Amino acid sequence: MNDMAWIAAPGAPLRGHVQVPGDKSVSHRAIMLAALADGTSRIEGFLEGEDARATEAIFRRMGVSIETPAPGVRVVHGVGIDGLRAADGALDCGNAGTGMRLLAGLLAGQAFDSTLVGDASLSKRPMRRVTEPLARMGARIDTDAGGLPPLRVHGGQRLTGIEFDNTLASAQVKSCLLLAGLYADGETVVHESRPTRDYTERMLAAFGWPIDFAPGIARITGGHRLRATDVRVPADFSSAAFFLVAASIVPGSDLLLRRVGMNPRRTGLLHVLRLMGADIVESDAGEEGGEPVADLRVRHAALRGIDVPEQHVPDMIDEFPALFVAAACASGTTRVTGAHELRVKESDRIATMASGLRTLGVDIEEVDDGATITGSAGGFGGGHVESHGDHRIAMSFAVAGQRARGEVRIGDTANVSTSFPGFLTLAQSMGCALRAD
Ligand code: S3P
What is the Cα–Cα distance from 316 to 392, expressed in whole angstroms? Predict the structure, then answer.
């Protein structure tokens, strides 16, 4: 908890052409694979957020030289697949679940011991989902009681590939096992009945590691090498999502979001907003660094409540706080189910959103794996809400404030810089009424 707070209020219509910062998932993976590659890789569009920088700092401490010739650019001098060395002391992943879970797999295959720690929020997040399958591969990782961080990873273990069913639909779990699989004897296979984001698979292929993958399956064998390659990080769909919702709910808005990453495993919110009646048009579709990108023009539209199809849940897992705000401004009822994972994100996102929206007078009922929200096209009131240190909750309430009838004070907003540095200024530049308190 910190005392950095924002005040959001009804603002002007959102207008302009903007590009949000680089993708967080891609930035983590780019640093990891570039560090382990033979040769020098250049990363452009790197997210200058605390989560990605925490991962970068960890690799520096394990002996990788990384230059920053300009903001958003990294030149990584790879040390090769077996070139990392032990750092002195614990490795701090900050707020980043992705950093900690992917590193657990990668470090399980090293010859040396490591300890992964995180901030107060990360220290409460479940790690058995990675330590248990890693143990099946032969890894030795000690956790605190209840499977919580810190993770004490014992090096020098012989790993063997396993076949794993990713029932939680977690890209972090899948990626963790694939990274451990780089160091394992034999084949590591991950099956998914609900496919998750495939950045690790795509990037391993781009760095020259043989990998077979398709929606629902990924398989690799150990014992190859990674070849340095340049990576262009697309703008983060999850950061663009706040403005897709804001422009949809504020009358008169007409906004262009440029070069947004459109990996189909990330764009669930786009489908759901369209089902609700949103006016979002894609143009200039192209490719950047092997990832689909497009410009998204979003104009205000009257939204209506829907039952969110469960098939979209993994493809919009980070977008539910923003969707809840859209639902609060829609006519009729929106039902979210099948999203139990929201309970173990940076905060319990079902409980935090429900409590904040209720404070603003929104009719929201929590269920175990989602919520039922009855919106009102007339918006809602103001009030004091808490983000509980969760970046996406803070940004979602900043968006909600644009449609509130009074001021919304949002507490504990410092962690927005983990994923979206510059959010406040960018939002102001589009017309949002948002300021630091
Ligand atoms: C991520 C996967 C998702 C997502 C997170 C980033 C990744 O987590 O919520 O923000 O980069 O692999 P889960 O794997 O827990 O669903």
Answer: 13
Strand order from edge to edge, sheet including 73-79:
65-67, 73-79, 38-44, 231-232
| Number of domains forming the structure of the chain | 2
What CATH number is given to the structural domain containing 74?
3.65.10.10
**Residue 363 known to be catalytic:** no
CB of 170 shorter than 6 A to ligand 1? yes
Q: Which residue has the tokens 């993770």?
A: 151
- 259 and 117 in a common domain: no
Q: What is the pLDDT of residue 76?
A: 99
Tokens of 215: 């929606």
In angstroms, rounded to a whole number, what is the distance separating the alpha carbons of residues 40 and 61?
Answer: 18
User: For 94, what's the count of Cα atoms within 13 Å in the CB-facing half-sphere?
Assistant: 23
Which position has the higher pLDDT, 3 or 208?
208
Is 396:353 a contact under the CB 8 Å cutoff?
yes
130, pLDDT greater than 90: yes
Q: 192 CA distance to ligand 1 centroid (A)?
A: 15
Q: Is the CB of 175 under 6 A from ligand 1?
A: yes
pLDDT, tens digit (0-9, with 9 covering 90-100), for 154-200: 999 999 999 999 999 999 999 999 999 999 999 999 999 999 999 99
- pTM for the model stands at 0.97
Which two three-digit tokens encode residue 151? 């993770």
10 and 43 assigned to the same domain: no
- What is the DSSP pairing of strand 231-232 with strand 217-221? unpaired
pLDDT of residue 2: 60
Domain hosting residue 391, numbered range: 5-22+234-436
Contacts of 27 (CB under 8 A, 6+ apart): 43, 46, 47, 49, 52, 55, 233
The stretches of 62-109 forming alpha helices (DSSP H) are: 97-108
The mean per-residue pLDDT over the stretch 45-72 comes to: 98
State which of 204, 231, 258 marks the end of a domain: 231
Count of CB atoms situated within 10 Å of the CB of 165:
11
- The C-alpha angle 13, 15, 16, rounded to 5 degrees, equals 170
- State how far the Cα of 87 lies from the Cα of 89, in Å rounded to an integer: 6
- Reading the block at residue 13, the tokens are 């219509």
State which ligand 1 atom lies nearest to the alpha carbon of 171.
14
